[in-house]
Amino acid sequence: MAKPVSQKQYVKKRGLRCPYCGSEDIEGDAVEIDAGGASQEITCLSCGARWYDLYNLVGYMIKK
């Protein structure tokens, strides 16, 4: 398996491509939420790589 792009490059591309092969053919499992953060397992359907996307709580939006 190829060396993945850096964390900074992955975030800059908004997590829309596999960090290993660059494919857009990725899918995510359920989002796991935990005290101000969340994670989601992602799988590349092209090369089979698996990783976790990590999310941080940045605020909230009132529903109108």
Can you give keywords for this protein?
single chain; 64 residues; mainly beta; 3 strands; 9% helix
Give an overview in words.
With 64 residues, the chain is mainly beta. It has one domain (7-56). It contains one helix and three strands. It has one helix at 7-12, and strands at residues 26-34, 37-44, 50-56. A three-stranded antiparallel sheet has the order 1-2-3, with no helix packed on it. β1 and β2 form a beta hairpin. The longest helix is centred in the N-terminal third of the chain and has 6 residues, at 7-12. It is elongated. The mean pLDDT is 94.
Mean pLDDT: 94
How many strands appear in the DSSP assignment? 3
**Total number of distinct structural domains:** 1
Estimated helix fraction: under 10%
From the spread of the alpha carbons, the general shape counts as: elongated
Order of SSEs = HEEE
Radius of gyration, in angstroms, nearest whole number: 13 Å
Query: DSSP helix count?
Result: 1
Q: Strands of the largest sheet, in order across it? A: 1-2-3
User: Residue ranges: pLDDT <50 for 5 or more in a row?
Assistant: none
> What separation lies between the terminal Cα atoms?
47 Å
